[in-house]
Known about the structure:
By secondary structure, this protein is of the alpha/beta class. It is built from four helices and five strands; from the N terminus they run βββαβαβαα.
Amino acid sequence: MRVLALDPGSVRIGVALSDELKLLASPQEHIPAEPFAGFLRRFKDLLREKEVDLVIVGMPRNMDGTYGDAAARVREFVSVLKEAVPIPIRTWDERLTSVQANRVLSQNKTRRDDRRKKVDGIAAAVLLQSYLDMQGLTG
């Protein structure tokens, strides 16, 4: 079984997946956020295809740790997902994941046009790796 991470955005939702040992995260794809029914269909397909037993969703926080409007939207998103699938869904702090993803792409000399296509999946992988690393320390 695997862990799937979502990095929700208003245009695209980044997806990452753990290996079966739940040690390493890898970027998968991004799914258009709209139409939501299309996202939900692809999300359910991924859960089934990849044998996922836990979903992690990036929770945006301000640098001081407080929650803003974006966090409220993610809470609503998570609520809808929990109604749609029987798999446990948890949120995880996503502060600076996009910054880290952009840094990785920049260091790899990824062209700016290509960066936009890849950043969501890599941000989801950064998020998921953070979660997996913490589980290794506490689990």
